[in-house]
Design brief:
two-stranded antiparallel ribbon, 5 helices
């Protein structure tokens, strides 16, 4: 076990903001999709969808900040006596894949919204451009991509949590780097 410099406090904050936001989006999406479709009598479905889209777009900003911080202030490397050399390459690939899937979830959700005919206003302040026009086929196409990338993200999150639990029980310094203990 070797303890080295951990992640910057700002990177840790971005990590946990992204984590909390992703968990909120998973939980809220199941609820909001069960709501009745909007009509003259039922307009309340718009608010949960706008909040969902706003948080998804905000995750993009958080992810950009996190990646900037990870490259600008990289944590020290860790050498763990029980780890095989291929494990460090696997961890790098895993994190790359995680970031790509998060990006894919956010972009496909935004594109689906663009082709749905519903506008997106970022936190009710900034009207975001619609990159498309109302097209049901493209909306369904991007919705399917969004659905499958979200399921992939859920699998990657489960792997991430499992890895954190594994390292916590091994007490090998990995979790302490992230928690700044």
């Amino acid at each position: 076990m070797t303890q080295t410099r951990g992640f910057s406090r700002r990177a840790i904050i971005m990590h946990w903001l992204i984590t909390i936001s992703i968990f909120f989006l998973f939980i809220s999406s199941w609820w909001m999709l069960s709501l009745p479709f909007p009509s003259e009598d039922f307009k309340y479905r718009v608010l949960p969808f706008q909040v969902h889209k706003n948080i998804g777009i905000t995750i993009l900003f958080f992810l950009a900040i996190l990646l900037y911080l990870r490259f600008k202030f990289p944590p020290g490397t860790v050498v763990i006596s029980h780890a095989h050399p291929w494990m460090s390459r696997l961890v790098i690939f895993y994190h790359f894949l995680l970031y790509v899937i998060i990006l894919s979830c956010c972009v496909s959700g935004y594109m689906s919204s663009s082709y749905s005919g519903w506008n997106t206003t970022l936190w009710w302040i900034i009207e975001l451009p619609n990159w498309g026009y109302e097209d049901e086929e493209l909306n369904i196409f991007y919705s399917e991509i969004h659905l499958w990338t979200c399921w992939a993200l859920l699998v990657l999150v489960a792997i991430h949590v499992s890895g954190a639990i594994y390292h916590a029980f091994r007490n090998d310094g990995i979790v302490q780097r992230m928690l700044r203990l």
